[in-house]
Structure formats: C-alpha cells, structure tokens
C-alpha cells in the first residue's frame, strides 16, 4: 500500500463520518478489499453527539508496513467503548429514552446516586409503551450515556453502574 492509498483511506473514513452525521445515523460498518491479503475494516459509531472511528487491518505483507502503522494508531486514539464496561446497562430494545417519569419531573437517577437492584433507572418508550428499565445490580451511577428524549438502539449503552 502506498502513501496515496493511506491518504485515500483517511479521506474515505472522513467521508463515512460525514455521511453518518448528514443522514442522522448512529453506526456504519464497511470493509474495503484491496487484494487477497489486504483489506480495511472501518466502523464509525456516534453516541451522545460524539463520533468515534475504529479501523482494523490484517497482518500486512512486508511492503505494506507504513500504512498499517497508521491504521493501527486509529483504534488507540478512539475512546474506550462504554458498551464493553463491566458495569454497563444496555438497552433491551429500540425506542426513545426518558430519564424522568414525566417532563419537568426529577430524573430517576443522577450521576453519583446509589441504586438498588431492580430500581427503575430510566424509561424507554417503544411503540407507545413506557418500559421501565431496572438497575441490573446495586451500586453507584458513574456515568449516564444518553440524553433525555433521544432515540436508543438495542444493545446501546445507557449508563454505567459500579
């Protein structure tokens, strides 16, 4: 792979991030095949108004050493994925998240709050049904990863409870 190919990959990743924002998408995954032993996999994810880009490349053949170093640096620069955190509470469904029982009411939980197992931490509205999401464990709310009234997808991290 030449420097020109690497520059093309960077432009490609930038275009994917722009496409994600322009079309109000939350995730995009693409695999580009350059040859039998050479490809680029890109996953662009937007969560809480942040765009993270990860890229992975297979073990290179000897003449591809420089571009792989650039591709390997991209995942290290990406922030830690909250969905992989052991205390992550993930969405059991697609819907709209609400942090309080009704507009203007106090939120169910705030950062730093102590919760008990089974306590409602938020609501997800799906198909006009309000689904109370319980805390899967007792602990302290460390981070709230969603905004009130915003859509969530199945498996998306909602908050971190430790």
From TrEMBL:
PROSITE patterns: BIOTIN (PS00188), BIOTINYL_LIPOYL (PS50968)
Residue intervals of the Lipoyl-binding domain: 86-162
Molecular function via GO: acetyl-CoA carboxylase activity
InterPro entries linked: AcCoA_biotinCC, Biotin_BS, Biotin_Carboxyl_Carrier/Decarb, Biotin_lipoyl, Single_hybrid_motif
Keywords carried by this UniProt record: Biotin, Fatty acid biosynthesis, Fatty acid metabolism, Ligase, Lipid biosynthesis, Lipid metabolism
Pathway(s) this gene product operates in, as recorded in its UniProt entry: Lipid metabolism; fatty acid biosynthesis
Gene3D superfamilies on file: 2.40.50.100
PANTHER family per the UniProt record, alphabetical: OXALOACETATE DECARBOXYLASE ALPHA CHAIN (PTHR45266:SF3)
Task of the protein: This protein is a component of the acetyl coenzyme A carboxylase complex; first, biotin carboxylase catalyzes the carboxylation of the carrier protein and then the transcarboxylase transfers the carboxyl group to form malonyl-CoA.
Name of the molecule in the record: Biotin carboxyl carrier protein of acetyl-CoA carboxylase
Source lineage: Bacteria, Pseudomonadati, Pseudomonadota, Alphaproteobacteria, Rhodobacterales
Gene, per the UniProt record: accB
